[in-house]
Amino acid sequence: MRTYSVVDSPLGPLTLAARDGALSGLYLTRHKRRPDLAELGSYTTQGFDEAARQLEEYFAGDRRTFDLPLAPAGNAFAQRVWQQLQLIPYGQTRSYGELAEEFGGRGFAQAVGAANGRNPLCIVVPCHRVIGADGRLVGYAGGLDRKEFLLRLENPAWPPNDTLF
């Protein structure tokens, strides 16, 4: 059974989707690949309490990892990339090339980037922690301003070499 709900956050409303009780989607309002609500199933206020609680703790700075049943839909490669994203420690970043090394070399950076861009569980599967090789913010389905917000939430000193000229 597919259901969805909406919770408030510092980034605006978040749409949470579930399939058979497992979180299958978390979308920002301006999310580039946000499905139509009809594709997410029936609206409900039931069954999302734990996800909402953990997100609230995350935004308050009290949670660094999520402990929720997840069911993101994607091919085998994308699933592997999403698993790797969850290994990036809170407050840290990796480049697409660094992630690609886990899949056979930096030549896989574009494929890793494409899978990262299709991540249906933003925030919970921390695709915001992936940046360009030069340290700049690139590619975030919810907007670069939101990516920067999340990185600064996790590490107020981000970016590490922030200098004013």
- Our estimate of the beta-strand percent is 15-25%
Number of domains: 2
- CATH first level of the largest domain: which class? Mainly Alpha
Count of alpha and pi helical runs: 5
CATH fold descriptor of the largest domain: Arc Repressor Mutant, subunit A
How many individual β-strands? 6
For the terminal residues, how far apart are their CA atoms? 55 Å
What's the CATH H-level superfamily name of the largest domain?
Answer: Winged helix-like DNA-binding domain superfamily/Winged helix DNA-binding domain
Helix and strand pattern:
EEEEHHEHHEH
Structural category: alpha/beta
Description:
By secondary structure, the protein is an alpha/beta fold. It has 2 domains: 2-59, Double Stranded RNA Binding Domain, CATH 3.30.160; 76-154, Arc Repressor Mutant, subunit A, CATH 1.10.10.10. Helix content is 28%, strand content 15%. The protein has 5 helices and 6 strands. The chain has helices spanning 49-59, 76-85, 96-101, 109-117, 144-154; strands at residues 2-7, 14-19, 22-28, 42-43, 94-95, 130-131. The strands form 2 sheets. The chain has a 4-stranded mixed beta sheet, with no helix packed on it. It is globular and about 45 Å long.
